[in-house]
Design a protein that fits this description.
Blueprint lengths: L1 H6 L3 E3 L14 E3 L4 H14 L4 E7 L2 H16 L3 E8 L6 H7 L1 H4 L4 E5 L2 H14 L4 E3 L6 H7 L7 E5 L3 H4 L1 H14 L5 H18 L5 H10 L3 E3 L2 E3 L1 E2 L2 E2 L3 E5 L4
Parallel strand pairs: 1-2, 3-4, 3-5, 5-6
Antiparallel strand pairs: 7-12, 8-9, 10-11
Helix pairs in contact: 2-3, 4-6, 6-7
Amino acid sequence: MSIAEAENVLLFSPLAATPQLEGISAHFFSNWPPDSDQMTKLASYAATAEMRCIAVLVQDMQGSVSCSKCFADEFVRQGGRIPVWLKFSTRGADIGRLIVDHLDELKQVDGILLMGWPEEMGRAAKEVRFRLDAPLLAYCDIKDIDAVNSGGAAINDVIYANPVFNADVIGPHSRVFVDRFKQRTGASPTLEDACCYDAVMLLADSMKSGHTTADAIGQMLRELQGYDGVAGRLQFTKGVVRGHYEISRVKPI
């Protein structure tokens, strides 16, 4: 980020979501629903589902830890407790041993939050399910193929907050995008596709309107009161667009 600021270059990402990027620089923008919103939604669900005591099992890397802290802050704000916070290393961690060492503590909680790479969350789910019956919550990547391969049936019914993309709700312009995407590719667009399209079109439209420098485009984005993108209405706060998430469960493998 320091290089972008020194060179006065604007960084615009359609996929960056980690909490530490929010408000990091006047040169950074992202239109992907931020992880902080995902974690707030998941924590609110846990609090209203009478999970008053949650353990956190998190891979020791910056993005996962920052997401876990977002969850914990909101969960505690709503009256919950986080009595167990366990970190495992990014490579070669014996997750099973970590769980065994803290088994008595883990037996006292109402649920366990898993955070990390999909493969590691799948492996952690398998180790937890082998020893405990507590409900599992996780980052939305728990549904990815790497989590399926490492966790198998252990990830069934894991609860997560999923970013929503529904063209019928967003509006006719989004429906047109979906139809044209299907015609060209033969597949339905994902939220990733929609956000990438919006990023390109927003920047193109800003330049067409005479904003051709990094400072001018950045100022325009900060003052934007609403842009009807195919992924939803865009308005930036701290460089990001607030997102809409819904609670889901991993379907049986």
